[in-house]
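Input structure tokens:
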């Protein structure tokens, strides 16, 4: 549709004829006059046709440039579209108001010099402009445009939303509402302006947020980033991972409105040089269900009844045994617990005494800890379904596996040693572990055993669905994989499906037999990317 320039209606109509609302002239031809810099006593610059084309084509396609005879670089520039001519005029108009540097003075050419005659058929003119000057990409339907968006990253999508109203409406209505997770690292390449633009587009839709502050470079800018996040994230936020200096009052006060909505929170303080401090996360996050703390704080302020909390990972070392026992005693509703503190035996006894509903337990042992077997055996409760025991020493591994093989309710077990060693004498215990009636997921990391033991684990653990193996002693060959397939074929019931065996990538690269599609019915080899 052609534009009518209110400031130049007198120029758009022929002076010799009476005013007629049905008649108009489309302005596509402009008079361009270069001007000198106001702050320097320089002569008026001279431009060639090519130079003028380079400077003006940013407003749109140019049909022609005619230099005015006997004038210094003055020209008549005809744009393909009246819209483009109007943009060039507006740029000059607003540059004058703002006092910005101007290269040209831009005015419409006289009506008799316009390349298009007047017409009485406005509807025909409108249709012609739309068909001729609309970008061809908008001939595609919305589904095609959205399909193209799949090939763009988030930064490109945000930039695209600011290109025009069409993309802005399409992305805000049908694309951005589907973006629920956002990962932000406060670093130089992520400028504050870029983060603000992104959060304006997706902030109110985010349910999962990960923010990591770069202490070495951007720590002083952290509050500004947090302000942008807090201003744009809506009440639908549910999960967050935050890595920053939690002892800064400004950070806590900025995030407090957002923290009120969280159901899951992971916190990490990267600044280990700061003195120990304590934060009442119960007051900040009253609705938390999952809470993972990796902050050097005693958690005395959090030691109170927390009715919504179900899963917690307590901070290492700084939480005293007395505080730990008091905390779990006041929160018997906990179903998942992780700790890696000293005095492990006392804590295990307290867990068995005060957490009757516990289903998932993760313990990170220290090599210096002497495990009391009877204390570990007392965890054999009816509700415990998942257990993870890591960093075991060669002296602890035999006792732990022997006791775990008596936990009849376990469905998922992860056992890891602190480092790999020579073949140990726990092969029989590992086989007994695989015989647990409900066990479907087994992880054995840095526990050394031979290929015969692995075959027995698979043979007697016919109910296993997933098996993770990290073993520097056991060498996986095509022959061993073929033997595993035969065991799965002969000893696993067809209803249990294929066994998913996870190995490290460097192990899989040496194998060829797993590419045989016939094996996938019984065994599927996958890359183990767990840390």
């Amino acid at each position: 549709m052609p534009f009518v320039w209110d400031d130049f209606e007198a120029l758009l109509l022929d002076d010799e004829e009476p005013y007629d609302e049905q008649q108009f002239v489309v302005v596509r031809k402009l008079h361009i006059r270069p001007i000198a810099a106001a702050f320097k006593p320089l002569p008026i610059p001279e431009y060639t046709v090519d130079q003028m084309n380079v400077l003006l084509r940013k407003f749109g396609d140019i049909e022609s440039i005619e230099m005015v005879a006997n004038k210094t670089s003055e020209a008549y520039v005809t744009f393909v579209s009246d819209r483009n001519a109007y943009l060039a005029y507006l740029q000059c108009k607003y540059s004058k108001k703002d006092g910005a540097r101007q290269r040209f003075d831009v005015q419409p050419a006289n009506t008799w010099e316009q390349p298009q005659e007047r017409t009485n058929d406005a509807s025909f003119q409108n249709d012609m402009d739309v068909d001729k000057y609309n970008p061809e990409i908008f001939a595609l339907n919305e589904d095609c445009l959205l399909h193209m968006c799949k090939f763009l990253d988030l930064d490109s999508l945000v930039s695209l939303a600011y290109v025009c109203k069409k993309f802005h409406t399409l992305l805000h209505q049908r694309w951005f509402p589907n973006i629920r997770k956002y990962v932000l690292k406060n670093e130089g390449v992520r400028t504050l302006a870029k983060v603000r633009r992104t959060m304006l587009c997706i902030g109110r839709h985010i349910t999962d947020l990960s923010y990591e502050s770069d202490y070495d470079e951007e720590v002083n800018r952290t509050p500004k980033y947090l302000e942008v996040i807090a201003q744009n994230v809506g009440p639908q936020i549910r999960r967050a991972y935050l890595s920053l200096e939690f002892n800064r009052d400004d950070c806590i006060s900025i995030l407090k409105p957002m923290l009120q909505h969280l159901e899951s929170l992971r916190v990490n303080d990267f600044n280990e040089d700061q003195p120990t401090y304590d934060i009442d996360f119960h007051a900040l996050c009253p609705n938390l269900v999952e809470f993972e703390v990796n902050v050097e704080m005693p958690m005395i302020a959090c030691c109170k009844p927390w009715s919504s909390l179900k899963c917690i990972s307590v901070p290492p070392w700084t939480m005293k045994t007395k505080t730990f026992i008091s905390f779990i005693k006041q929160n018997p509703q906990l179903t998942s617990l992780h700790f890696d503190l000293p005095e492990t035996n006392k804590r295990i006894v307290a867990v068995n005494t005060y957490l009757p509903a516990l289903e998932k337990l993760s313990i990170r042992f220290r090599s210096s800890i002497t495990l009391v077997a009877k204390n570990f055996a007392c965890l054999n409760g009816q509700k415990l379904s998942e257990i993870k025991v890591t960093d075991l020493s060669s002296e602890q591994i035999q006792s732990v596996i022997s006791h775990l093989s008596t936990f009849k309710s376990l469905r998922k077990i992860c056992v890891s040693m602190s480092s790999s060693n020579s073949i140990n004498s726990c092969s029989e215990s590992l086989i007994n572990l695989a015989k647990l009636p409900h066990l479907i997921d087994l992880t054995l990391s840095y526990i050394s055993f031979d290929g015969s033991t692995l075959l027995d684990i698979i043979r007697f653990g016919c109910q296993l669905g997933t098996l993770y193996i990290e073993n520097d002693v056991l060498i996986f060959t095509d022959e061993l994989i073929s033997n595993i397939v035969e065991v799965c074929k002969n000893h696993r019931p067809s209803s249990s499906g294929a066994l998913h065996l996870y190995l490290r990538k460097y192990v899989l690269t040496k194998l060829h037999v797993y590419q045989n599609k016939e094996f996938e019915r019984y065994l599927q080899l996958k890359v183990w990317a767990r840390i």
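Confidence is low (pLDDT under 50) at residues 6-23, 117-133. The chain has three domains: 6-134, 275-358, 361-531.
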